[in-house]
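WARN  no MSA supplied for this record, continuing single-sequence
INFO  ligand: iron/sulfur cluster
INFO  echoing inputs
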Amino acid sequence: MTLEEKIHEYSAPAELFERLKDDGARCLACAHKCVIPPGGAGICKVRFNNSGILKVPWGYISGYGLDPIEKKPFFHALPGALTFSFGMLGCNFKCSFCQNYLSSQALRDPACSEGGIQPAAPGKLAEAAREAGAAFAVSTYNEPLITAEWSVAVFKEARKYGIRGAYVSNGYASAEVLDYIRPHVDIYKVDLKTFSDENYIKVAGGKLSNVLKAIEMIHARGFWLEIVTLLIPGFNDGEKELESLAAFVAGVSKDIPWHITAFYPTYNMTDREATSPETLLKARDIGLKKGLKYVYTGNTPGQGFEDTLCPSCGKGLVTRRGFKILNNSVKVTKKGKGLCGNCSAAIPGLWK
Ligand code: SF4
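INFO  complex generated
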């Protein structure tokens, strides 16, 4: 059985779509909003039109893992919490520097076709998360927006055990999908890949403006939002570009944590060196100058900029080494608000 045949076997009717005339379907799960004729598939290749009904991935996972929440990365959501991460196959982007290309590009690139799948049921995944002691179930590894119905089914089961839902996403979201997942997802990480529309289209296959609009919508809907930028030499590390990017994030909210992570050559982008620590530090300075209160550097443990400091008094609140929490002195109020343990300034995030 080919991978495409397997994908068709593991499918269920979509909730995020509208029917069009002549058995056409418009998918609403991401900002591409593909119009799909009968027998066709969307850009992501995993949502397809079966006689006027959109069918979507269901009943399988490509893999799962138990990770600290810092690895996703979320730094302002229950530091040190364990996550149960699961993924499917496919993506609505085609980034040449993808770090999960075996699962994300499995249907697009024959070199990735080893991405295997195993049958799964939402209740069983939730039970596994509970047995492991996970605080979050995380839809990740591939793009969760394109498998939104499945992730919500898993999150509904997980919520029965008090486990919260999380998205690790490229942020190419529609308003419809955000409204659909909001009751089930508490925290949302967006990969903001570049601030150049030309590069977004060329490398990822999507429009920058749609990602920016989604970031505003995610924030406005009250998800706890953190943003990551993989800093790639010669691609997105120009000073002006980083200034524009940081100014945009600060314009949405200065409280949004911005993670700047180091690139290492991978997949189809092996023509350049890894990001230098100096470049990361330069980007961090730019973020702080634009008013962002929490700017972290990642993939370079021990640099000292992975700790959460109080923006009011400067006291170290959460000390990290890699994915380990060495100290956490955020005070948590009865209502779950985070406060600096020293000066009681509000520290935004999900702390309880
Ligand atoms: S999830 Fe996005 S890419 Fe996939 S079919 Fe729907 S609109 Fe198209």
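The two ends are 46 Å apart (CA to CA).
INFO  checksum written, moving to next record
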